[in-house]
Write the structure tokens for this entry.
Amino acid sequence: MTNRRRDFLRGSALAGVAVPGLALTRAALAALPEPVVRTDAATAAPIPVDGSFRPVVTLNGWSLPWRMNGEVKEFHLVAEPVVREIAPGMTAHLWGYNGSSPGPTIEVREGERVRIFVTNRLPEHTTIHWHGQRLPNGMDGVGGLTQPQIPPGKTWVYEFVARRPGSFMYHPHADEMTQMAMGMMGSWITHPVRRHPDIDPVDRDFCILLNAYDIDPGSFTPRIATMLDFNLWTWNSRVFPGIDSLNVRRGDRVRIRIGNLTMTNHPMHIHGHEFVVSGTDGGPTPRASRWPEVTVDVGVGQMRQLEFVADEEGDWAFHCHKSHHTMNAMGHEVATMIGVDQRGLAGRIGALIPDYMVMGERGMADMGGMHMPLPRNTLPMMTGRGPHGPLEMGGMFTVLKVRRDQPPGDYRDPGWYVQPPGSRAAEWRGDAPGIDRGASGRGGSPAPAATRGGAAAGAGTGAQSLEIRVRKPGHGGHGGHGHP
Ligand SMILES: [Cu+2]
């Protein structure tokens, strides 16, 4: 956790250098709230407030400071190009707000009048749509339908009352395919003004936007025409191991607000606990409609609030359950080589193709411990190290860290969990009887596969015959990650 004020100052200075060409004069800016900018990807401490609500913690993000102008809460968003660290070792050239992608989280109280100044420093026009809000039609931010687009260099003003409490999002409704593929989005939280029958106070309140990018290894700018074949599955424009852990005290009531602005659904899964969905972008769910889950699908354009009591100590995986979404970019044209004896193959092919490398003979786990030469500005496909070895994860994965001694209100990483002696899975050292395959008629274990040719391997003879087809057809034809 870093000092916010210092970061803001440093961020402002950096942004001034990185994004020249500000169209506003100094005099014009004086009438607007100072645009606060933050460019680093550390999780910021919750914004200090007067105690009227418990602020959220945006994972690898921050909440936007405001100015009170009479009874009106004023914010200033600046749509602009940003440089985002996706994880240590890779940065992306994105578009965002106030120095970051996603933009800062906006936090208000139910019933407040809110005024948002939006300055456009992009090379093309934009708007902001306030996803899920009740507001006057002219404030809905749909370019061409409810307002003309905001031209480059101009500042427009939105103003409405935050009428209902809940978890919302904001994003452009102008050249959407480009602007959302480039990272323009943010979270909006409206806290209840008083105790709401369907909203419980919580001890920790986290906020995550699911997004996705298609950035070729070695390049910096997303391909914006991609519809499904993204290769970086991100939370708040970060991938594991760049996503901070969720650090909580044992017994804390925890809320995680998750919005999905990717082009596919994400089944979000938490280990070791059951949660309920306490709200959507439609508002708090009635208590009678809640049931325990360990996975909830967050559809495209949806928001889900997960809530649970963190009563089991440990390091618990928290991830999207689509296994391709917990991996980073790679060449997905790779053939499945499981079961193929590749001994000697690399040398023979290497004579034809320098730098050729065989992989995946025993599954892809070999990759987790492998140090492959990578192009500049990309990440290993399966990476991260835990206390017991390689984690073999990337993308939409992080860790929920539950500790009895995590101080209240302290969000710092407590390090890895030390399991009580004798409570971890371990190697069996007793007798191991053979496997009786009985009725299968095959009798005994199949012999190890021998390689013949490259495509199919015949192993054993007669009743033990087992044919393994190892080259899977049709890659790229069913929503994979490859670039056709
Ligand atoms: Cu997913």
In short: Residues 1-25, 331-335, 443-463, 472-484 have pLDDT under 50 and may be disordered.
